[in-house]
Amino acid sequence: MRDQKSDRAAYVMILPAYFTFTCFILVPIFLIVYYSLTDYNMFASPNFNSVKNYMRMATDEDFLKSVQNTLVYSLFYLIPQLSLGLLFAVLLHRPSRFITVLRSAIYIPNVISMVCVSMAWLWIFNPTFGVLNHVISAIGIPEQTWLLDPAMALGCIIVMSIWKSCGYSMVIYLSGLTGIPASLYEAARIDGAGAFRQFTAITWPMLKPTTFFLLITGIVNSFSVFEQVNIMTNGGPLRSTTTIVHQIYRRGFLEFKMGYASSMAVVLLIFSLLITILVFKFGSKGQDTDIS
Fold first, then answer.
1. How far is 158 from 166, CA to CA, in rounded Å?
2. CA distance 174 to 276
3. Which CATH architecture fits 60-287?
4. What share of the chain is helix, strand, coil (3-state, %, to 5)?
5. How many CB atoms sit inside 10 A of residue 76's CB?
6. Contact, 246 vs 229, CB < 8 A?
7. Of 75, 85, 110, 203, most Cβ neighbours within 10 A?
8. What's this model's pTM, rounded to 2 decimal places?
9. Structure letter (DSSP) for residue 48
10. What is the pLDDT of residues 207-261, one digit of tens each?
11. Cα separation of 264 and 67, whole Å?
12. Does residue 158 sit in helix, strand or coil?
């Protein structure tokens, strides 16, 4: 009887979480899948059009370009961001008042809203009065148009995103470093291992679960990049920075082609799931923290 009462109490306690998940995640997913098979435009009743939206995406140059840009962004954002986070964590993993200030300085950009950060970097990249052009011209480098150059715009957004989020990776890596027993390093120093050998034989293997977590969350975040693109370039110039989520926003809320936008969202969901499954499949060994 006591076990049954405990079970009922447990179900009651988790009910709000299930209710929230159902209302705000599960039901919207099913609605998006349904709308992706219609010509819904937000003003009239949707009409079923089978897979026409998905067939249209195969020849939509804007969407194909957004897929390319999203993949490029994910690749060149994720690896440097994780690398910098790990580097800062290793360098700043020591008790000191000065170190605490440095940690805070690196992490602060992560808590600033993306809108504020994007506006600040718009000023930095401004080709007329931007601080970056003033700096490079002072050392003899020609001024650049930065966000107005199709060859440089996406790279500028990637640099800004790395600067903003590497502090988050640093904090997560610091928590992982805290969990590594100090006795392992003491034993390694007794055996004559230097700093690099300690990193490759102890630090990196023990941080593989942390890296695995950051990799999964980073992939999801990089596939959903939108705010900085919409604020800094609005997908331009010449579609050089448009991403999948940016295209979903434009088609759904500016052109009112909600059915077509929903089909893009479904493709993005499937694509994200596939990439995540592949990472889990080939990266699950990263959970192994045995030290050899």
1. 12
2. 24
3. Orthogonal Bundle (1.10)
4. 75, 0, 25
5. 17
6. yes
7. 85
8. 0.89
9. B
10. 999 999 999 999 989 999 999 999 999 999 999 999 999 999 999 999 999 999 9
11. 10
12. helix
Which residue's entry shows tokens 């390093």?
A: 185
Note whether 170 and 85 are within 8 A (CB): yes
DSSP type of residue 254: I
DSSP summary character for residue 23: I
Distance (Å, rounded) from C-alpha 289 to C-alpha 292?
A: 9
Instruction: Name residue, tokens 């590594």.
Output: 180
Instruction: For residue 225, give the nearest of 78, 35, 80 by alpha carbon.
Output: 78
Report d(CA 274, CA 140) in Å as an integer: 47
3-state secondary structure of 144: coil
Domain ranges of the chain: 60-287
Cis peptide before 237 (omega within 30 of 0): yes
| Rounded Cα–Cα distance for residues 34 and 128 (Å) | 48
Which structure tokens are listed for 183? 């006795």
